[in-house]
Amino acid sequence: MKLYGMLDSPFVRRVAISLASQQIDFELIQLSVFSTFNEFSKVNPVVKAPTLLLDDGTYLMDSTLILQYLEHQQKLSFFALSAQGYQLLGLILALAEKAVQYVYETQLRAEELQNPTWKKRVLLQAEKACQAIEQQIQGYPFNSKDQVCISLAIVWTFIQKKLKGLISQESYPSITQLQQQMEQTEIFQRYAYPQA
Ligand SMILES: N[C@@H](CCC(=O)N[C@@H](CS)C(=O)NCC(=O)O)C(=O)O
Engineered SS bond to 10: which of 59, 61, 158, 178, CB 3.0-4.6 Å? Predict the structure, then answer.
């Protein structure tokens, strides 16, 4: 089983760390959907990361679908979450999506072509997600194998690296504390966010 994508993608890192936390064997192939588009398209014609390539040639995409498939296949419990856990995970994945949209708008477009209304909207949505997460994560049971804890830590690191200064770490102490705890674990360090 091969996992394709770069570890600066929160979705790729989420799958890599989730699999490793359940001792699932896989090979990480770090291909970029941008700089190695053609090579990536040989694995998945739609060029989405993460892509999980199964031994029979089936290619799966979307981090949640990949985890759901493996959960059923290998009798795991990635998504044995309470309603509160699902609500949190939804907020975290929406935050990840908004953060990636902001990065694409600001890094893939020339400044004069960027849409200020869209950028403002995306940042507002991201901030609202952070506020809800900060409130709800207090009292959530910490577990280094839990999807909420894994995904939140990964998304928070991505935001600190890519949206520098736009979402202040100090305003969200509970999220930051959880992220720091998770980033110190062996598995997070094994699949670390790449150095610049
Ligand atoms: N909902 C998807 C989002 C995946 C996603 O957007 N990945 C980005 C990399 S961070 C990508 O493939 N970008 C290239 C593109 O969308 O064309 C997931 O959970 O896997």
Answer: 158
